[in-house]
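User: My advisor asked me to double-check a structure prediction for Chromosome partitioning protein before group meeting. I don't want to rely on an old file, so could you generate it fresh from this sequence?
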Amino acid sequence: ETVSPLPEATRILTVSNQKGGVGKTTTTVNLASALARRGARVLVIDLDPQGNASTALGVPHRPEVTSVYDVLLGDSGLADALQPTTDHENLWCVPSTINLAGAEIELVSLVAREQRLRTALQAFLAESEDTYHYVFIDCPPSLGLLTVNAFVAADEVLIPIQCEYYALEGLSQLLGNIQLIQKHLNPDLSISTILLTMYDARTNLAQEVASEVRAHFPDQVLGAVIPRSVRISEAPSYGQTVHAYDGASIGALAYLEAAAEMAERGAKVDSSTERQN
Ligand code: ADP
Ligand code: MG
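Assistant: Sure, here is a fresh prediction for Chromosome partitioning protein from the sequence you gave:
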């Protein structure tokens, strides 16, 4: 088994894009699983009330399960919500439950409402006897307090982009929001990684969108692209990542390639989103 170059400090990535259905959750679980399979210890925090990441990792997330909701409200530490996954012994998950849907509103009246995930995660990482090499936070497709908590907790933003006509449209709004977060809440946040997903090499449109994104973000876009693949879309209904479901499929190999590239590049980035607007 290949062992990644492991990062010296924990890399905390939020997987964000205000568009729904662009592959945020799919990318979160399959990249996390790929890195775990390359020898890293990886934690996935499911911050979407839909709980799709928890489902794909085979982690229970019934309403009574201790979840990221309890962590955000301060009723549990992150360690209490941590669960092993059936996917890989190196891969852990803090599930979301449907309770999280109300959290956007419940958080409003709490002190330090934007910092709650960061505080809980930092306390967990400091207390944990085990090293975590990567933390991935799967975000809902909106800029509410949940997503803001993810931006404040993370050092890196990973943006999955679906290679279709309107791909770049929502992006400038996302960049604007990231700049606001950098200015007011988390100066250390940077866009480290952009991953092209659901790529169909047979269409001119996909190639055009891909080259446009690469021209705008030459340092961030991974060389690896994720093809549209039935195996990738089937895996979650079995409560599996694509690596567990069909590890030899092109989709699994593409995520392994993306993971290797991420590990080799490290967290180096250009923190000014200014230039890219
Ligand atoms: P998001 O989290 O951004 O809403 P998802 O990761 O849930 O997006 O993906 C949206 C849908 O597209 C899901 O049904 C998922 O299975 C499917 N999907 C994601 N990536 C691929 C891919 N590379 N090939 C085929 N289907 C995909
Ligand atoms: Mg999702």
